[in-house]
Amino acid sequence: MTVRAFVATRETRGSGAGRRCRYGQEMPVWAWIEIGAASVIALSIIASFAVAAVLGSISSEVSQLLEVDSYASTPMKRAEATAARA
Fold first, then answer.
1. For residue range 3-45, what is the model confidence (pLDDT) as tens digits?
2. Nearest-angstrom CA–CA distance, 50 and 74
3. pTM for the model
4. Which residues neighbour 5 within 8 Å (Cβ) at sequence distance 6 or greater?
């Protein structure tokens, strides 16, 4: 089964290394499948880079929000500890 995409001209008829694909020559279905598969792979790579960029910006913003300050990790003074228990 072939998809008619090109018509062979007099210069292109026949077989061999000198044969070129010109308008009107038939293009096999497998060529269309290969083009489609390459397009899907390229689009998925582009989409994955876009998702990675968005997730990278989100993670940098979250890490800035969760930044631990030194005063938050110091132990409480005795007066503050007794006031917190009461």
1. 555 555 555 555 554 455 566 678 889 999 999 999 999 999 9
2. 41
3. 0.47
4. 25, 26, 27
DSSP the chain: -EEEEE---TTT-S-STT----TBEEEEHHHHHHHHHHHHHHHHHHHHHHHHHHHHHHHHHHHHHTPPPHHHHSPPPHHHHHHHH-
Q: List the domain boundaries for the chain.
A: 2-85
Residue 83 in tokens: 């006031």
Residue labelled with tokens 């077989």: 15
| Interstrand relation of 25-28 and 2-6 (parallel, antiparallel or unpaired) | antiparallel
